[in-house]
Amino acid sequence: MARITLRQLLDDAAEHSYGVPAFNINNMEQGLAILEAARATDAPVILQASRGARSYAGDIMLAKMMEALEVMYPEIPICIHQDHGDTVATCLSAIQNGFTSVMMDGSLEADGKTPADYTYNAGITGEVSRLAHMVGASVEGELGCLGSLETGGGEAEDGHGFEGTLDRAMLLTDPDEAARFVAETQVDALAVAIGTSHGAYKFSKRPDGEVLAMDLIERLHAKLPDTHLVMHGSSSVPEEWQAVFNASGGEMRETYGVPVEEIVRGIRHGVRKVNIDTDLRLASTAEFRRVAQGSKSEFDPRKFLKPAMTAMTKVCTERFEAFGTAGNAQRIRVIPMADMARRYASGSLTTRSSAARAA
Ligand code: 13P
Fold this sequence. Notes:
This protein is an alpha/beta fold. The chain has one domain: TIM Barrel. Helix content is 44%, strand content 12%. The protein contains 13 helices and 8 strands. Strands 1-2-3-4-5-6-7-8 form an 8-stranded parallel β-barrel, surrounded by 9 helices. α2 crosses α12. It is globular and about 60 Å long. The two termini are 20 Å apart. The protein binds 1,3-dihydroxyacetonephosphate.
């Protein structure tokens, strides 16, 4: 059984220069598809559940599903992460349900819509770090609001995301403020705003540096070389799957995601966690549509779900290979959460040390 913390996994990724996709999960088919790809490529895994996923599947079902995946794939280190926690209670209840890592997203207030000020964000994120670290769980914070540099708008998803438009400055993480935030909150990883947003409609044309600020990743990494950076909204929205979706009765208007080569550039500059939800949703629903269109009399859900799982496994395999995650699972010796807690308590695990070195 190999349930790993985000901190240990991202320390390993930094040491060996790779990135880890964090796939969102709501159901069994996504879990099996992701883990099949991990087994085929020997990749460690981050499975993340949003608050929406927790209410969709229920905490008990999600927790038991994670346990089942651990038993079925014992050779794969699995990090279980709360995506976009909005309150201290959300983060603590995730840990209570077996999550090894939580995101406290204090960039928005607890309503999930209103951009928060620095003091609120640093205060609540620091509080979650203090509590989570006591039991060895890891914490991701976010500074800057995720939104489009093309329109200034946020893509509210799953009840999360600001409404209306924001200034360019609020949509880009400031490196000096980031250094202060990491020092004050002691987060293990920092999500940054660089022009990516959740969902399928990120860019109306192939993104350039004006709308996808990869140069800012380079500046943030130069300022914070020991901080694990996280890219949210990092689906690539593959044309291949858009084509299947649209050829089978779907209506997805022209759209572009984050090119895989730009993510790989980020990984060369400190990006260690790459959030991907839309790509698996698109690949699977494209397959539902294809099956439904091709055999109108089909009523066995497995005939829809099996091709959907194959499609998701294909996407995951491609990302594990492109991000350099492949080939790393076997080497990792998982540090139990209780040991991680001792390392935080003894001060040997700060934002400037690695879990491996602190052993
Ligand atoms: P995508 O919508 O680009 O897949 O992003 C998912 C995400 O960032 C979840 O936090």
